Amino acid sequence: MNERIQFLQQRNSAARLTEPGPSAEELESMFSVAMRAPDHARLRPWRFLTISGARRNDLGALLREALLLREPDADIATLDKASCAPLRAPLIVAVITCFCEHPKVPPVEQRMSAACAAHGLLFAADALGYGAIWRTGKSAFDPHVQRGLGLEPGEEIAGFIYLGTRQGPPKPLPALQPADFVQSW
Ligand SMILES: Cc1cc2nc3c(=O)[nH]c(=O)nc-3n(C[C@H](O)[C@H](O)[C@H](O)COP(=O)(O)O)c2cc1C
């Protein structure tokens, strides 16, 4: 079996992540991979925010505030879980979709390009030996979180990519059969 195909077939998200995260140099190469996403009219409909170190606590505070605004009756345990969520990895990359008006490229295509960029980050993390997982949850769609992260009108969060060193063994890959999903037409 072709090694590169084998590598691609084995990408696997990792929910349990610890130090170290990718270095600045590694991260730069990961962004280069992300930006090889297919991109109709080369609009580059993405940008990335890196959140690490103590800034993860600030993100946690923002997630907690947003949760409280959404659910004023949320209990302390749920609020604490929101505050601690960003501490689940040494580094988080928020992938932002940046929409623009284009006669041939509707928003859905721009959103798909940014999603491909996020997927590129997952593959690049795997290639460098790091673990990663794409997370959203209600907070990704929450206007308070979007404002707190400095999103402009016409932007949205495609996802939070949690990155770090995988803790524990990789989870088993699902045994999906292409034949169950592919028909010839
Ligand atoms: C747009 C998007 C949002 C996701 N949000 C979450 C999330 O908030 N929490 C979570 O545990 N997994 C989330 N996932 C799923 C994980 O990233 C991952 O794909 C899943 O755990 C399956 O693992 P695998 O990628 O190794 O097959 C999301 C995936 C996508 C594409």
Automatic annotation (TrEMBL):
PANTHER family with a match to the protein in the record: NAD(P)H NITROREDUCTASE YDJA-RELATED (PTHR43821:SF1)
Limits of the Nitroreductase domain: 18-164
GO molecular function, one term: oxidoreductase activity
Co-factor remark: Binds 1 FMN per subunit.
SUPFAM superfamilies documented for this protein: FMN-dependent nitroreductase-like
Binding site for FMN: R11, N12, S13, R36, H40, W134, R135, T136
EC nos: 1.-.-.-
Family the UniProt entry places it in: Belongs to the nitroreductase family.
Cofactor(s) listed in the protein's UniProt record: FMN
Classification via InterPro entries: NAD(P)H_nitroreductase, Nitroreductase, Nitroreductase-like, YdjA-like
Organism: Pseudohalioglobus lutimaris
Keywords, ordered alphabetically: Flavoprotein, FMN, NAD, NADP, Oxidoreductase
Any one Pfam family match given in the protein's UniProt record, by short name: Nitroreductase
Protein name stated in the entry: Putative NAD(P)H nitroreductase
Superkingdom of this protein's organism: Bacteria
This protein's record includes keyword NADP: yes
